[in-house]
Amino acid sequence: MDTTLVLVILIAVMAIGFAGIALFVNSKLGGLKNDTALGLIKQDFQGMHERLDKAATVFGGLQQELGRMQELGRSMRDIQDALKSPKLRGNIGEQMMAEMLSQQIPKGNFKLQHAFRSGEKVDAVIKTRNGLIPIDSKFPAENFLKYVQSKDEAEKKRLHKDFVADVKKHIQAISTKYIQPAEGTVDFAFMYVPGENVFYHIISQTDLYEFGATQRVILVSPQSFYHYLGTVLLSLEGELIEQKAKEVMSYLKGIQGDARKFDTELTLVSKHLTNAKNAADSAVNSYAKLSGKIDSANQLSLGDVRPRKLSAETEKPKEETLV
């Protein structure tokens, strides 16, 4: 409601209130006949005075509220004036899109302001195994805002036609500049529409969504873009799981190789140990034989080796017989 109209209504209400008070006082004075009536009138005046004080307090509060409403109205007009700038609207859309990316996609899997060899920069790309997914957020909404605000039917029709032409031109630019498989992109791109109401109008009142499909450009609203990002996130998680599985398999193959090498070395050590055991057993046997011989030698008696005594006959030399 307009502030001036509110003030007029309040003034009228207060005027009616004061007129009612005047009529009430006149009726009381007309019936004044004694002191008792005068006392009653004083009491009534005192009660009315208190009520007027309260009304003044309420009116002061209303003035403060009206002041705040006027300030809020000025702020809203300032915001509307600011949003008339296409560049500022584009920056807001880009910030919203970047915030959604940071909430849904791991930091290392997306990049803002990705540059191509041509010098063109796309607002963001998502890095996937199949390539980079370009995302544009510079939606041409100027003629749409004029279309919504216009009251003239002929002008609305013209503005709507201009709006559709602007969006188609922008879709073609996205397809030409940002879908670059030779530079690692996928064969499609996202066009971020920063407003559910605008997106609903596009899919219900125009052929822009179908036209975007022919140009390999997918139009998305904040809500549908959120769901697309969820799908991309699942794909990225699948890639991560696959990558980790490959790392685990590579690690297991390494362990298998080490196990085979260890088995070879263990077999060689076992062979050496067997040879060493056999040699030790042979040495033990040889030592046992040698020890037995030594023991046998120690058991020999000295008497067995003394010379025998000669008999008397053998001790005397035989006399030679003379012939």
Summarize the topology.
Layout: H1 3-30, H2 35-83, H3 86-104, E1 110-115, E2 121-128, E3 131-136, H4 142-149, H5 153-178, E4 189-192, H6 196-205, H7 208-214, E5 217-220, H8 222-298, H9 312-315
Parallel strand pairs: 3-4, 4-5
Antiparallel strand pairs: 1-2, 2-3
Helix pairs in contact: 1-2, 3-8, 4-5
Tell me the helix content.
over 70%
The tally of strands reads: 5
> Biggest sheet, in brief?
5 strands, mixed
Q: How would you classify the helix and strand content by structural class?
A: alpha/beta
Envelope shape: elongated
Count every helix, treating DSSP H or I runs of 4 or more residues as helices: 9
Low-pLDDT residue spans: 78-83
Description:
The protein is an alpha/beta fold. It has 9 helices and 5 strands; from the N terminus they run αααβββααβααβαα. A 5-stranded mixed β-sheet has the order 1-2-3-4-5. Strand 2 and strand 3 form a beta hairpin. Helix 4 runs antiparallel to helix 5. The termini are far apart. The relative contact order is 0.05.
At a glance:
With 323 residues, the protein is an alpha/beta fold.
Keywords:
alpha/beta; five-stranded mixed β-sheet; 5 strands
